[in-house]
Structure formats: structure tokens, C-alpha cells
Amino acid sequence: MENSQYKIQGLDLHDVCKRFGTPLYVYDADVIKRQFENFSNAFSGIDHRIMYAVKSCTNLSIMKYMRFLGAGIDTVSIPEIKMGFKVGFKPEEIVFTPNVVEFHEIREAVEFGVPINIENLQNLEAFGKEFKSAYPVCIRLNPNMLSEIESGRATSLDFASINKEHYDEVGEQQVSAWHNQSKFGISLMEFDKVLELVKKYNIRINGLHLHSSHVILDKKVFAKGVKIVFEIAKLFDHLEYVDFGGGIMVKHHPDDIVIELDETGRILKKEYDKFCVSIDKRIKIWFEPGRYLMSEAGCLLTKAVVLKTNGFINFVGTNTGFNHLLRPMMYDAYHEIVNLSNLCGELEKYNIVGNLCEIDNIGTERMLNKVRKDDILMIKNAGAYGFSMSSNYNTRPKPAEVLIINGRAELIRKRENFDDLIRNQIELDF
Ligand code: LLP
Hints:
Blueprint: E1 7-8, E2 11-12, H1 13-20, E3 24-28, H2 29-42, E4 48-53, H3 60-69, E5 72-75, H4 78-86, E6 94-96, H5 103-112, E7 117-118, H6 121-131, E8 137-142, E9 145-150, E10 153-159, H7 164-170, E11 186-187, H8 191-201, E12 205-209, H9 219-233, E13 241-243, H10 261-279, E14 284-287, H11 291-294, E15 298-310, E16 313-318, H12 327-331, E17 337-339, E18 347-353, E19 361-369, E20 376-379, E21 400-405, E22 408-413, H13 418-422
Parallel strand pairs: 3-21, 4-5, 4-14, 5-6, 7-8, 8-11, 8-12, 12-13, 13-14, 16-18
Antiparallel strand pairs: 1-2, 3-15, 9-10, 15-16, 15-20, 17-20, 18-19, 21-22
Helix pairs in contact: 2-10, 6-8, 9-10
The chain binds ligand LLP.
Ligand LLP binds next to helix 11 and helix 12.
């Protein structure tokens, strides 16, 4: 967020709060654009497509802005597909990448004509039986990459291939999302079954999918994963694209280690070029970033409503909580907090907490410029998985959302009211 201290595109966030109230989600269109361009430039040598992961910030105007920038969308449910159509995406600009779904959802996606990604053998078999070669399909792989985690960082790796012995050897170790103990994708250990199904039903595999996840952090792991996928890709004559999913991290804390996207681009390009020469055809590469595009573009603005000291801890009680931003409580995620109303005030140590009736930390032991009642606090990196994971817990309305674009603050979701909270409830007579 440009000049995170105070203004976004020249607008004072205090004025934005006065106009729309708090708590308030605010997104900066310029940052979304910057991130989109950074991403695109990193892979400029590759025929690629950015499919924005709608789940990270599921708002029609944000989706529409992504379309304006040139993105497609990655959807995980039928309503997300329908939202895509609503804002003008064509079927071929939408990918359906669901997890653990009943087959009728896949059938519906076929009716919509969108590219589909299947992540388990059960649905692949059902797909083969019903559609045979009439509708192409992409499969999501779990390449059994093992990355031991030491001190929270992937340090060594190995590839188990379809080799059970190797898997048993390392089975007990702490492993990453690309390992076959994670629920995602079809394990390479079952790959022979994929090939059997493809042959039996004459299924047309047009894509391979591999969610990059945090594994992309380790260059060596990523390079190996890419090689494996391209090796497998050679087995499918109808292949049109390889989808590397999302999961590209951005810094939340100054000490966070994130990847050099340009370097990832170089690693990928090398293997991509080799692969295209080997099959004598240029395929497309897809990505599904959500966080990379949206995290830094959004913040949650909240008001300090209650200041109190319990024991030796100074608490700042805000008018938001994990009903609006779940990440700190759910993942112990760090979100920087800035007191926008007292930028030059002395630094003091606080626990910033929410207003729910249970432990509801937003940030603990944080040094903030002295907080006074009614100060506006900015919770950063809230653009991805902020509003989209919010709830009405404690019967509180969800915040409004505002997009700052072309120097103007535009409301893109109204604040909920009492009627919204009880809309679907049915009051019985007794
Ligand atoms: N593609 C697939 C197949 C995914 O599973 C995901 C995220 C994405 C793309 C987008 O990942 P991104 O680029 O946004 O990291 N609620 C969690 C994140 C869950 C991500 C699940 N899958 C959080 O707040 O960190």
C-alpha cells in the first residue's frame, strides 16, 4: 500500500473512515495492478495466463478489475463460477479447481463449459464413464515431493516418484504440502491408475495441475517439481496447459522469507523451453495467485474503542475481531498494525484485541504509537483471505468494502445491517 502511513492515492484514510465507518476493508487498485504486472513480468518469456484465485477476495468489483487487468479466474465452487459469468468472464477464462466435491458439481461445470481440474481418482473415473473423450479435463497431481522442515524452512528434499520404498523411508518425517500425506491432488504413487482410467475411458487430458504452495519457497524443490510435471506431461498427447496453482507468499513480517518471483520465472522458463522443443508444440502455463495479487492491496481499518490494563498488559480493544479477520487466530498469522491517528506518538507495547466474547487476539506484544480512544488502526495484508473468511459470529454485521481507484474511494460492498443478520432465519411460533 503506497504511503501506508496515511494516504492511499492521495486520500486520507481518516476521511475514508468518516465516510464509510469502521471496521472497513479498503483495497488499493494501484497495488493490485502493480502486483499483477510484477507477476506477469516475472513470467514474460512464457506463454502464460494468470487466473486470479477468487476465494482470496470474493468481490464482484475486484473480480471485474482483475478482468480489466487481463486475468482469468480460478474458482472452487459453482457460485464462484456464476459470479465470474456475472462480471463478464467467458467460460474459457474460468478454471474450476474444486476440492473434495460431489460429482454433480463437476457435471454442472461441464454444462457451463469451463476448464475443469480433477483431484481424485473417484471423480476421474466418474468423469471418464460419463464424458469419455467428449470433454477435456485437467488432473491435479501431488508429486510426492518431500521437504523436511527444519526451523520452519524447507532445507532438504527428495522425490519419491512412484517408489513406495522411498516413501516408507521418509514417511515419518515432517513433510510439506506436496507430499502424498496431504489431501490434495492425485498422488504419483497412484499414477498408474490414472493412466489405466485414461486408457479405459479414452479420457482427453488437456492439462496438468500442481499447486505451487509454499514449496515454491525452495528453488531446488520447485525446480524438481517442474521437471517432474513436464516429464509426466509428455505422456499426454492432448496437453494444452500446465497449471502451477497459487500459494505465492508475500511479506507480512520484515523477517519473512519470500521467493524472488523473477528467479522462479527463470527456472520455469528454462524447463518450459526444453519441454516445448521436446514435444514440438508450445503449451500454455497457468497460475492461480490470490494472495500475491490481493494481500498487500488491502487493509482492515478499525477503531480503538476500549483501552485497559490487565496485569502488566496494555490492551487495545477494537471494534473488529476474528469474525472479520480470522487469520491471526486461525493461523497465528502476523499482520502489521499501524496507528494511523498518532503517527509520531511515542511507541508503547500493546496487545491489540477484538471484541468477541472469547480470546480474540489480532496482534500481541506490538509496539505501536501511543493509542488513544477512537484512534484508527490499520491492519495490513488483509486483502487476501480477510473479508472472504469473515463471519457473523457474535451476531455482528460484516464490514463494508471500499476500492480506491483513480483517486476515488468507491463502495464495493455495503456494511451489513440487522436485517441482513436475521434474513434467513425462520422464527417458529410456540
Ligand atoms: N490454487 C489452488 C489450487 C489453491 O488451493 C489455492 C489456495 C490457490 C490457488 C490460491 O492460493 P494463494 O495464491 O492465494 O495463496 N486461507 C488461507 C489460504 C488458503 C489457501 C488455499 N488454497 C490463508 O488465509 O492464508
